[in-house]
């Protein structure tokens, strides 16, 4: 299975840190945020990774190269201007192929082992990894029912982690250009074609400088001491 890491955003919520450094290269736990993803993918046996880039793309490409330093092979999907999540995935489909792939938002940190995710069923277009609602997002995003299906309405609600298994068919037939992924997911939910996985481990939306600093301190405290 291949994976795609979303890394094309402008990082506006992280300013001023991202004025001169793209968000995926911000350091946390003694390494760039995106390297945590690459290392976890490699550990899970996922070695083919597609990364979309736009804002300060050359900095990211120069830092990671072909991925061999991290035990993976990176294919780069360039966007002249950010195409949003849906459009970015669609642009990358020639690199991803026709089989389901793992999608990871570049601005999160999570201890999920991707090998624990069940494969997509024959009728499923997506499997969303959901987490307990954090303090900054108390109302959550979606409802996960007892049968493992995800719904846009219903209680209790969980938060979308930014990690999912996706079938390329979810975006393949949309008109090219910038478009969001969320409406397509909600449409698939209404058709009963989105499954969910409740991850109860560690997860952080590294969306503000304050959360970045907090995560950095937590990870640093667990680093081996010389």
UniProtKB/TrEMBL annotation:
InterPro entries: GlmU-like (IPR050065), MurU (IPR054790), NTP_transferase_dom (IPR005835), Nucleotide-diphossugar_trans (IPR029044). The keyword Nucleotidyltransferase applies. The lineage of its organism: Bacteria, Pseudomonadati, Pseudomonadota, Gammaproteobacteria, Oceanospirillales. The keyword rRNA-binding does not apply. This is Nucleotidyltransferase family protein. Keywords: Nucleotidyltransferase, Transferase. Transmembrane segments: none annotated. PANTHER family: N-ACETYLMURAMATE ALPHA-1-PHOSPHATE URIDYLYLTRANSFERASE (PTHR43584:SF8), NUCLEOTIDYL TRANSFERASE (PTHR43584). Pfam families: NTP_transferase (PF00483). Residues 2-126 form the Nucleotidyl transferase domain. CDD domains: NTP_transferase_like_1. It comes from the Bacteria. NCBIfam families: NAMPUrTaseMurU.
């Amino acid at each position: 299975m291949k994976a795609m890491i979303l890394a094309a955003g402008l990082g506006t919520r992280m300013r001023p840190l991202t004025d001169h450094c793209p968000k995926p290269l911000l350091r946390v736990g003694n390494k760039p945020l995106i390297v945590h993803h690459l290392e976890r993918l490699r550990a899970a046996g996922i070695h083919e990774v597609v990364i979309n880039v736009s804002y300060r793309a050359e900095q990211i490409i120069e830092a990671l190269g072909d991925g061999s330093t991290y035990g993976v092979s990176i294919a780069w999907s360039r966007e002249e201007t950010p195409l949003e999540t849906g459009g970015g995935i669609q642009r990358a489909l020639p690199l991803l192929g026709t089989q389901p792939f793992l999608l990871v938002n570049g601005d999160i940190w999570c201890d999920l082992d991707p090998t624990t995710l069940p494969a997509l069923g024959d009728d499923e277009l997506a499997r969303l990894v959901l987490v307990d609602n954090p303090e900054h997002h108390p109302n959550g995003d979606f409802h996960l029912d007892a049968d493992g299906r995800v719904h846009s309405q219903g209680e209790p609600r969980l938060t979308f982690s930014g990690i999912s298994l996706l079938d390329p068919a979810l975006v393949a037939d949309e008109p090219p250009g910038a478009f969001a992924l969320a409406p397509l997911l909600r449409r698939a939910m209404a058709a009963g074609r989105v499954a969910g996985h409740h991850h109860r481990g560690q997860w952080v939306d590294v969306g503000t400088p304050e959360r970045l600093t907090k995560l950095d301190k937590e990870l640093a405290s667990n680093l081996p001491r010389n």
